[in-house]
UniProtKB/TrEMBL annotation:
<dbReference type="InterPro" id="IPR006433">
    <property type="entry name" value="Prohead_protease"/>
</dbReference>
<dbReference type="Pfam" id="PF04586">
    <property type="entry name" value="Peptidase_S78"/>
</dbReference>
<feature type="domain" description="Prohead serine protease">
    <location>
        <begin position="24"/>
        <end position="159"/>
    </location>
</feature>
<dbReference type="GO" id="GO:0008233">
    <property type="term" value="F:peptidase activity"/>
</dbReference>
<dbReference type="InterPro" id="IPR054613">
    <property type="entry name" value="Peptidase_S78_dom"/>
</dbReference>
<keyword id="KW-1188">Viral release from host cell</keyword>
<keyword id="KW-0645">Protease</keyword>
<keyword id="KW-0378">Hydrolase</keyword>
<protein>
    <submittedName>
        <fullName>HK97 family phage prohead protease</fullName>
    </submittedName>
</protein>
<dbReference type="GO" id="GO:0006508">
    <property type="term" value="P:proteolysis"/>
</dbReference>
Length: 186
C-alpha cells in the first residue's frame, strides 16, 4: 500500500563505507544515501526515489544546498553534482573555506571528527513492508548536510588520499592501542 505524504522536511543521516572523500580539505564526493539499506529509523530508500525531484530541480535551474548540520542559515559549500546511480545518491562538491563554518567543517572532516552526510527531504510516496520498515519510493530532496551523527553507524567516511593500506594500518594501530589500555587495567 503506497502512502502519499505532505508533511514537512525530514532528515536522514548517512555515514558511508569510506565513500565520502575529501581532497585538499575542500573537495568532497561520495554517497549521501544508499539504496536498499535500512537505517536506524527503519526507513529504506528505494532506487529511483530522487529521480523526479532531481529532474524538477534541474528544469528550474535549482540546486541541492550544502548545509552544516541541517542549519539553513549555515550553507558551507556547493554541490556541483548530485545524481542517482545504481548504488545511491552520489554527491560531489566543494566546501567554501572563505566561509567560517566551511573552514571549520574542512578541519573537522580532515581530523576525522565529522564523518557523516545527511539528507534533508520531504517524503512524497512511501509504503510499509511486511517487516514494518518504511520503503521510501519518492522523495523531494532539499539539501545534503555534513553532520556529526549519521543514521548508518556501521559505515565510515574515508579521505580520498587514504589508500586501503593506510586505513588498515590505522585500524590496526587503534586495535593495538585498545589492547594496550585493556592490559594496563588488569
Amino acid at each position: 500500500m503506497q502512502e502519499k505524504h505532505m508533511n514537512g522536511l525530514e532528515h536522514k543521516f548517512c555515514q558511508l563505507d569510506a565513500t565520502l572523500s575529501v581532497t585538499d580539505g575542500t573537495l568532497i564526493e561520495g554517497y549521501a544515501s544508499l539504496f536498499g539499506k535500512c537505517d536506524q529509523g527503519g526507513d529504506v530508500v528505494e532506487a529511483g526515489a530522487y529521480a523526479r525531484s532531481l529532474a524538477a530541480m534541474k528544469a528550474k535551474a535549482g540546486t541541492v544546498k550544502m548545509l552544516w548540520q541541517h542549519d539553513p542559515t549555515q550553507p558551507i559549500g556547493v554541490w556541483d553534482e548530485v545524481r542517482e546511480d545504481a548504488k545511491g545518491l552520489y554527491v560531489k562538491g566543494r566546501i567554501l573555506t572563505d566561509v567560517a563554518k566551511g573552514r571549520e567543517a574542512a578541519a573537522l572532516i580532515e581530523a576525522g571528527a565529522i564523518d557523516g552526510l545527511s539528507i534533508g527531504y520531504r517524503t512524497v510516496m512511501s509504503a510499509k513492508d511486511n517487516k514494518g520498515r518504511r520503503l521510501l519510493s519518492e522523495l523531494e530532496l532539499w539539501e545534503v548536510s555534513l553532520v556529526t551523527f549519521p543514521m548508518l553507524p556501521d559505515a565510515r567516511v574515508g579521505s580520498k588520499g587514504d589508500s586501503p593500506e593506510d586505513t588498515t594500518l590505522r585500524e590496526l594501530a587503534a586495535a593495538f592501542e585498545d589492547a594496550r589500555r585493556q592490559l594496563a587495567r588488569t
